[in-house]
Design a protein that fits this description.
- The complex is a heterodimer.
- By secondary structure, chain A is mainly beta.
- Chain A is 13% helix and 36% strand.
- Chain A has 3 helices and 5 strands; from the N terminus they run E-H-H-H-E-E-E-E.
- Chain A has a 5-stranded antiparallel beta sheet with strand order 1-3-4-5-2, with no helix packed on it.
- In chain A, a hairpin with a 3-residue loop joins strand 3 (97-112) and strand 4 (116-128).
- By secondary structure, chain B is of the alpha+beta class.
- The longest helix of chain B has 16 residues, at 62-77.
- Chain B contains 3 helices and 5 strands, in the order E-H-H-H-E-E-E-E.
- A 5-stranded antiparallel beta sheet of chain B has the order 1-3-4-5-2, with helices on one face.
- Classes of the chains: A mainly beta, B alpha+beta.
- The A-B interface holds A 21, 24-25, 27-31, 33-35, 45-47, 51, 53-55, 58-60, 62-63, 77, 80-88, 91, 150-151 and B 1, 22, 29, 32-33, 35-40, 43, 50, 53-55, 59, 62-64, 66-68, 70-71, 73-75, 79-80, 82-89, 92.
């Protein structure tokens, strides 16, 4: 990974949080909660509508490539996803339009006896809704190992 | 669903919900999560690729196990109660594995009059090997 990528910020991108995607995601994690699928139920909750499950927004981070390209990884089969973190500042509701912006927070090095020299990148994504409210922050930690690993 | 949501006053360190057991997991569940989550790393759905890459089979996404644990937390503490959630990926899991997701209260604290509960969680396979572990903070009503 290119250590000079640390501190870089990337162009914001917009996506729609669709009701069908929320239901599809809830089905895929086996969560039958009506807050993810039943508009009549969801309307009577304090949220007033269908909400996004806690880990949904990771879904929208695969397509934008700018931040991961800036890492200049030679071979992605040496990369593991070490950690994923979310901070929840406000609920995300079905029908909202979010704007996400990626920033490479840091790229650090560590020596590991098991996996050789490690490079650890933290990419932070900040999500705002259509009213300009900051609703969520996601941080993913990518680790480049000195040895090829199969994940 | 928040039917028996604990209150900040009643919850205490060590409290834990009934574990959530998922599986035996199938390739179809991995493929379904790939489509829903947009994680198209071929190690998770293409057996030919996964084997050529040194794996015994396709393996599940860490975020799928993370989704199971997030469900355990929201079923227990309430929809929208989470303030933060961190998932750390520990080892792979495979078709046929049964994952048991567990969570427990590490401590509770008050910040600016809000009742916060710090939890830890993990998902282990049928051998007891940790697949993911993590921590979360939730806000609970008094």
């Amino acid at each position: 990974m290119d250590p000079n990528a640390a501190g870089k910020t990337f162009p914001p991108y917009e996506f729609h949080v669709e009701r069908g995607k929320i239901r599809e995601f809830a089905d895929a994690i086996g969560d039958p909660n009506p807050i993810y699928r039943d508009p009549a139920y969801a309307e009577q909750t304090p949220f007033g509508g269908i909400i996004a499950p806690p880990t949904l927004l990771r879904t929208f981070l695969y397509e934008p490539r700018a931040a991961s390209e800036a890492l200049a990884v030679k071979d992605w089969s040496y990369i593991v996803h070490g950690e994923q973190e979310f901070e929840y500042l406000a609920p995300v509701l079905a029908g909202e339009v979010l704007t996400a912006q990626d920033r490479i927070v840091s790229i650090t090095e560590k020596e590991s006896r098991r996996a050789g020299k490690l490079q650890i990148a933290v990419i932070e994504t900040t999500f705002h809704n259509q009213r300009g409210e900051r609703v969520q922050i996601a941080r993913r930690t990518l680790v480049e190992t000195g040895k090829r690993i199969s994940e | 669903m928040t039917a028996n949501r604990p209150s900040f006053d009643s919850i205490k360190a060590g409290d834990a919900p009934a574990p959530l057991v998922c599986g035996p997991l199938t390739r179809t569940q991995f493929v379904r999560y790939a489509g829903a989550s947009h994680d198209f790393n071929p190690n998770h759905h293409d057996e030919v690729y996964a084997r050529a890459n040194g794996n015994k089979a396709v393996f599940g996404m860490g975020m799928l196990a993370g989704g199971y644990c997030a469900r355990l937390l929201t079923d227990w503490l309430g929809d929208g109660s989470l303030q933060r959630l961190r998932i750390r990926f520990a080892s792979r899991f495979w078709p046929g594995d049964v994952l048991t997701c567990m969570a427990w209260v590490a401590e509770k604290r008050e910040v600016d009059g809000k009742g916060l509960v710090d939890c830890e969680f993990s998902s282990v396979n049928q051998e007891g090997e940790v697949v993911i572990r993590g921590d979360a903070t939730a806000v609970l009503p008094r």
